[in-house]
Amino acid sequence: GVEVGPQPQGVARADVLDKMRKIVKHGLDFVQLFNEGKEFPPCTIEVFKIMEKVDYPRNKNGEIIAIIHPKLQDQDWQPLKNGDPLFLTLDGEVIPYQGNCTVYPTFINEAAYYEKKQAFVKTEKIKLTATHLRLPVS
Questions:
Q1: In the chain, beta strands by DSSP E
Q2: Does domain 43-130 have CATH number 2.20.25.160?
Q3: Which residues of 65-91 are buried (b: 16+ CB within 10 A; e: fewer)?
Q4: Start and end of every AstE/AspA barrel-sandwich hybrid domain (predicted)?
């Protein structure tokens, strides 16, 4: 499957549909070239690996007591460092990120994840390396 977004539930956006079409086309082009025997050289790519899902701060009754800080909103895949604003309480108190490494949040404040108690997902940026790839000769 291919998930391209962000996109609100029940909304069809032309720009997101165009991105989805492009990535599916690239995938199909790769399969065709691979099946034709093309050799692909070794490569390295940066990817984001999920570390953990982070919930909103809650009171003892399980009610949300803070919202995503405005400086974090719409900053998916951007670095979040120790001390950066993370949440904002209804009283105006800033709750900073407290971590020992830079992370890359995603799915920030997505409506579809409220019921799953997920404010965002912390990811780490890693590099994956692939050796050359070619269809074995039979």
A1: 43-54, 66-68, 85-89, 94-96, 104-106, 120-130
A2: yes
A3: bbbbbeebeebbeeebeeebebbbeee
A4: 44-125
Per-residue pLDDT of 51-101, as tens digits, reads 999 999 999 999 999 999 999 999 999 999 999 999 999 899 999 999 999
Asked if 88 contacts 109 with a C-beta cutoff of 8 angstroms, the reply is no
Domain boundaries, the chain: 1-38, 43-130
Beta pairing class for 94-96 and 120-130: unpaired
Distance CA 82, CA 69 (A): 14
3 is catalytic: yes
Q: Please, are residues 37 and 68 in contact by the beta-carbon 8 Å criterion?
A: no
The residue annotated as part of the active site, out of 3, 36, 52, 115, is 3
